[in-house]
Design a protein that fits this description.
Oxidized Rhodanese, domain 1, 5-stranded parallel beta sheet, Rhodanese-like_dom, transferase, Thiosulfate sulfurtransferase, thiosulfate-cyanide sulfurtransferase activity, Rhodanese-like_dom_sf
């Protein structure tokens, strides 16, 4: 599973894990970054012309990780400065391209949270290039249009829309529950809310660990964060609709307005 790790956990392991900063390059260079972090800006691994949906493509991904000094057996910790939503997208992409999920970690909090109490630097990181090779994952959470369409009639499935309530009201999949991804993070700490609060929020919308959960948003960024959180909490059956509403609308999938 992809897990969420504390700043203290990471501080004790700097130098022993590969840290990836997915903010814009000017932020990495001009504002500073975690010691030893490699820069892989979100826009560089975000493409609609890749392998599936919004994935960047095998060749692009291998080049980015090789240049950032990531090896296939590295433990990787990703962070951003937006409560982890862009970093989560990086980690899910790594998962879908075969990186061991047990070695993928989201920093709880973000750059701003780390910067409150810990060292950052503007010095260039010493990165030794690798030869990263994509592999097929042992299993994949990806589901396609047809699978999601069939799940509309599955009483065991909970289809979860992770967009904000206004977007949800403007049009959502029939029977979907609305779980705005930001409900799971604390604006003050910039990390996840306490476990009991997370459980209450999830239970309120019917997202239970013994149910089949299918996630979607617009372009698979926001569901990445929710996917990582559910993975961290131990949910076992979480499916990831990569095409999300971009594909759903293009294929005239059914929508409901409120």
């Amino acid at each position: 599973m992809i897990d969420v790790v504390s700043a203290a956990w990471l501080a004790d392991r700097l130098g022993g894990v590969r840290v990836v900063d997915v903010r814009d390059g000017w932020e990495f260079d001009g504002i500073g970054h975690l010691p030893g972090a490699a820069s892989i800006p979100f826009d560089e691994f975000r493409s609609a012309d890749g392998d599936v949906g919004m994935l960047p493509g095998r060749d692009v991904w291998e080049r980015l990780l090789s240049n950032a000094g990531v090896a296939v057996d590295d433990h990787v910790v990703a962070y951003d400065d937006t409560h982890g939503v862009f970093a989560a997208r990086f980690l899910v992409t790594a998962l879908l391209y075969g990186h061991d999920p047990e070695k993928l970690h989201l920093l709880d909090g973000d750059f701003s949270a780390w910067n409150r109490e810990r060292e950052t630097t503007s010095d260039a990181s010493d990165v030794v290039e690798t030869t990263y090779e994509v592999s097929a994952p042992e299993s994949t959470p990806l589901v396609d249009f047809e699978t999601v369409e069939a799940a509309l009639d599955d009483p065991e499935a909970v289809i979860v829309d992770t967009r904000d309530p206004e977007e949800f009201a403007a049009g959502h999949l029939p029977g979907a529950a609305n779980l705005d991804w930001r409900e799971l993070v604390d604006d003050e700490t910039r990390g996840l809310k306490p476990r009991d609060e997370l459980d209450a929020i999830l239970n309120d919308v019917g997202v239970a660990s013994d149910r089949r959960i299918i996630l979607y948003c617009n372009t698979a960024r926001r569901i990445s964060h929710t996917y990582v959180v559910l993975s961290h909490l131990g949910y076992e059956t979480v499916e990831f609709y990569e095409g999300s509403l971009t594909e759903w609308n293009a294929r005239d999938g059914a929508l409901v307005e409120e």
